[in-house]
Amino acid sequence: MYKKPTNALFFIAACAISTVASAHIGTQEHVHASFMAGLLHPWLGTDHLLAMLAVGAWSALVAQRLDSTLLRGPLAFANLLLLGALLGLQGVASPAVEPLVAASVLVLGLLVLARHALGGVASIVLAGGFALFHGLAHGAEFAAAADPVLAIAGMVVGTLGLHAIGLALGWALRSSPWGRRIAGGAVAASGLGLLLQLG
Fold first, then answer.
1. Treating both helix axes as pointing N-terminal to C-terminal, what angle do 177-198 and 46-62 enclose, rounded to 10 degrees?
2. Which of 15, 36, 127, 183 could pair covalently with 73 via S-S, beta carbons 3.0-4.6 A apart?
3. How many CB atoms lie within 10 A of CB 175?
4. Which residues, at least 6 apart from 27, have a Cβ–Cβ distance to it below 8 Å?
5. Tell me, what DSSP letter sits at residue 5?
6. Residues 33, 25: contact at Cβ < 8 Å?
7. Residues 6+ apart with CB under 8 A from 96
């Protein structure tokens, strides 16, 4: 029987955030600085942070059981994020990047709020499509890093960490309809605010 969520999940999430933020850079300053910059990058931008948490939460909310289907959205997001970042490093750009990053926060928040399930392919296309534009934004920012490839590697690790926290929070919210609606509504409202700022 599934137990109702407790504050433990939120404590775990807070510990994970503080652990990443206080990680030691080490002796190979440029190499580790690049990796750490990438690792922290998704955690420091509100749009990226909310989108990545929402992907994990949405995936957990609509999953039928604890199996591989739970990871479709997060893995599609991480892989297309990597592709987008590599393209961004090569100078690929689009004027739609910022609007679509903001739109991803809005749409993913609404999906969490409504606990709306999509088919497997549609979930992958949606999560991966948004991730591609997140990756383009990241890649352009990492072009000036000491080691851009290591920065991107760190970004992927940081993203997977956010997805894992989102999965845990989403699973906890399965038994809390009002908690889910509040969380999804807050994310969607943030996305709408980001879109209005761009307008």
1. 150
2. 127
3. 12
4. none
5. P
6. yes
7. 133
- pLDDT digits 0-9 by tens, 27-46: 344 445 689 989 999 999 89
The answer for residues whose C-beta is within 8 angstroms of residue 67's C-beta and 6 or more apart is none
pLDDT of residue 9: 40
Angle between helices 72-89 and 46-62 (to 10 degrees): 150
Instruction: Give the DSSP H or E segment for 32.
Output: helix 29-44
What is the DSSP-derived secondary structure letter of residue 91?
Answer: T
Phi then psi dihedrals of residue 115, to 5 deg: 50, 50
pTM of the model: 0.82
> What single letter denotes the amino acid at residue 196?
L
- DSSP, res 67: S
Calculated CA dihedral for residues 183, 75, 44, 134, nearest 10 degrees? -100
User: In angstroms, how far is CA 141 from the centroid of its own chain?
Assistant: 17
Report how far apart, in Å, the C-alpha atoms of 63 and of each of 116, 118, 139 are.
11, 10, 31
Beta-carbon contacts of 174 under 8 Å, excluding residues fewer than 6 positions away, are 2, 60, 61, 180
Which amino acid does the sequence have at 27? T
The conformation of residue 7, written as its DSSP 8-state character, comes to T
pLDDT band at 69 (very low <50, low <70, confident <90, very high): confident
